[in-house]
Design brief:
With about 350 residues, the chain is mainly alpha-helical. Helix content is about 75%, strand content about 0%. It has helices at about 5-20, 30-40, 50-85, 100-110, 115-120, 120-140, 150-175, 180-185, 195-215, 215-225, 225-230, 235-260, 265-275, 280-305, 315-335.
Length: about 350
């Protein structure tokens, strides 16, 4: 990795964090925010100049939300890059294997059970369980008719599972119309958090996913030359692909369980980095993690401030940005193939 890109990623991440903490309905001085963050470090005692109310807004409301945005954005972007390498498909997305449909069904089923259950924090657990069950079902269907789970078979199985689970979700919503607004709000995506609970839920899965995927970045470079060539270089293609898919799905499931369905992050960030730095996954994966975290924090800031008093769902903002980008990638891919 070229040091200039690593420095750019770190600076972008720091700028996104300061902007996400300083801007909002109550504006805080960026310098005071930076000093207050340093004051949170053990053994550091600084006067940020913020009032008690401003310090409370920073540490109790905005900081957990920004940290959650960092984790979710990093996981979605990293998973997108890993999927694209594992499937050798530039249009692969973290929701490819039915993760979105499974999480949506899990949340829908939990919400229609009643407010008493959802008030106890069962919604993230239901989303996580639904997402993992969907991936497991896709994995089983991918081997139907044969023992080899090829990338094409897994993609087709994911489409089938997503369609089936979406149909079940629609049936439940039709039977419980009174829960439609609450489910719809979750499906549009949000990063609202009342504390550090959601961060602590995602953090261990994010660490496991990051360690596994980043440690296999050289293997993704080998997979790009084809399975036959990879075997001749001493790599087991299917084993590496399975491990990457499982790790990426685990991180995606944890992310959507607390943030809702936020699309296109796994396409926008990796492809932008690929255009700027090249196709090597040795640099693409770590840069996707850093830039993905910064991207979602800035997108959440736009969602919080662009609509005035009414907050725009972050999934709407990412879809608005991602749909034209998806078309551009599709056109580019077709041009390359022809």
């Amino acid at each position: 990795m070229r040091p200039v890109w690593l420095a750019a990623a770190v600076l972008s991440l720091l700028a996104a964090v300061i902007a996400g903490l300083a801007l909002g309905s109550v504006r805080l001085p960026p310098a005071g925010v930076a000093v207050e963050l340093l004051d949170l470090l053990p053994g550091v005692h600084l006067n940020s100049g913020l009032s008690e109310r401003e310090a409370a807004i920073l540490t109790e409301l905005r900081l957990p939300r920004v940290v959650l945005g960092l984790l979710v954005g990093a996981m979605l972007a990293l998973a997108g890059a890993a999927y694209q390498g594992a499937f050798r498909n530039p249009l692969a997305d973290p929701h490819l294997l039915g993760v979105a449909a499974g999480a949506g069904l899990g949340v829908t089923a939990m919400i229609v059970l009643g407010a008493e259950v959802t008030a106890q924090g069962a919604v993230p657990a239901a989303a996580f369980a639904g997402a993992l069950c969907a991936v497991a079902l896709t994995w089983l269907l991918g081997a139907a008719g044969g023992r080899d789970r090829s990338p094409a078979a897994l993609i087709l199985a994911g489409v089938a599972v997503s369609s089936f689970l979406s149909a079940v979700q629609t049936y439940l919503l039709q039977r419980h119309v009174d829960s439609l607004q609450q489910v719809y709000s979750w499906l549009l995506g949000r990063l609202g958090t009342a504390g550090w609970r959601d961060v602590l839920v995602v953090l261990p899965y994010a660490l496991v996913t990051a360690v596994i995927v980043l440690s296999r970045r050289r293997e993704l470079d080998v997979l790009t030359v084809g399975d036959a060539e990879a075997r001749s270089l001493g790599l087991h293609p299917q084993r590496s692909r399975y491990l990457l898919i499982i790790a990426a799905s685990l991180g995606t499931a944890a992310a959507v369980s607390v943030s809702g369905l936020i699309g296109f992050v796994g396409i926008i960030v990796p492809h932008t980095i690929r255009l700027l730095t090249g196709p090597s996954y040795r640099s693409l994966l770590p840069l996707s993690l850093l830039f993905g975290a910064a991207f979602l924090v800035l997108t959440d800031l736009l969602a919080r401030t662009a609509g005035g008093a009414a907050e725009i769902p972050i999934g709407v903002v990412t879809a608005f940005l991602g749909a034209p980008f998806f078309i551009l990638v599709l056109r580019t891919s077709r041009a390359v193939q022809t």
